[in-house]
Amino acid sequence: MNITKMNGPVYRLGVNINEKGYLFEGLWPVPNGVSINSYLVMGEKKALIDMTQETCTLMDSLAQQIEQAGISPDQLDYIIVNHMEPDHSGMLRDFAKTNKKARFICSEKAVPLLDQFCSIPADRVDSVKDGDTLDLGGGQILTFYMVPNVHWPETMATYLESEKILFSCDAFGSYGTVEDAVFDDQLSEERAVFYEEEALRYYANIVATFSLFVDKAIKKIADLEIKVIAPSHGIVWRKEPQRIINDYKRYASYANGPAEPEVCLVWASMYGNTEKAVAPLIRGIKKEGLDVKVFRVPQDDLGHILAASWRAAGLVLAMPTYEYKMFPPMAQVVEDLMIKKVKNKKVLRVGSFGWVGGAEKDFRTRTEKAGWDIMDSVEFQGCPNEENLAQVEEAAGELARRIKEFTA
Ligand code: FEO
What we know:
about 400 residues, binds MU-OXO-diiron, alpha/beta, 2 domains, Rossmann fold
């Protein structure tokens, strides 16, 4: 890839990961790939902000891009380590072996991690606190802001005063590879919306659990004059930096208040009995004018289910009883919704059972602390009859009405 000249003496460097079957964090499918961005600030001293994962191809690519700026990696004076997760720090170990002079700048909490993850001892590291600055010379001063838990406790953001650029690392990031169009002003509206959708899924998969901290971080940077948001995943927002900030503000707000007036319906079926309830569920919701996103497990992936669940004010979970419990793939969905702190939802559960039930008790136990407003479930033995299906449709309509009232 080629480097991209940004404002002033700043370059955007980036690598894309889009191998088929690749799982981000070893867990999340990324059908549109993901970019990992770094930024080079060329003062009298040269600083590289964040690195990339530890694979030869990516490391070679980043090294070649540094050379495109007219310097070799050995000439870098500072490496700004905003975040120690290995998608940004994996290359540091090898880099530190060849470049012996660079200082590593990070938060206090990151100092031991640099040693443990990358064998970079504390005597090569300078820790910074909130508001500390680093003067690169030539009028280029970096200021550091601690943004703990966006995404790990040691995470910080870096601000370049001269160009009003915030290098925000995971914050304001998105999935999706980035090719020649690096900036939001180079994108069609449709493509910009694509990155916003990818940002929502990234948010739901990676930082949703820490929404309280996202909100705090946004408040912390509220007084900064920001002309450019330069995250470590996805595009650079220089035409409308506030657009992605507002998106993240809205995503974070879903943790504490109503989300959007729509429904995420997740269903599972063993022999087609619970499946028969899906059409009346959709009908009941749509009759009330709400949109519904439908997923089946285990066929559909959890990353997309989490994103739709995060954005929707209402959830429908349809599954049969399996050995006195919820159908296992759905139990996993519920477990993950709990881990990601998907709260403040209006929820309906439906499903079939064979000899006796059990899914209902299991569901109620697992969601006890979810903070969900759960309606009476609709259950049926074996194949649902007409009366059962009418009950399902009516319950879905009632759920939709409650969502409308909740989000009004
Ligand atoms: Fe992109 Fe939390 O690492």
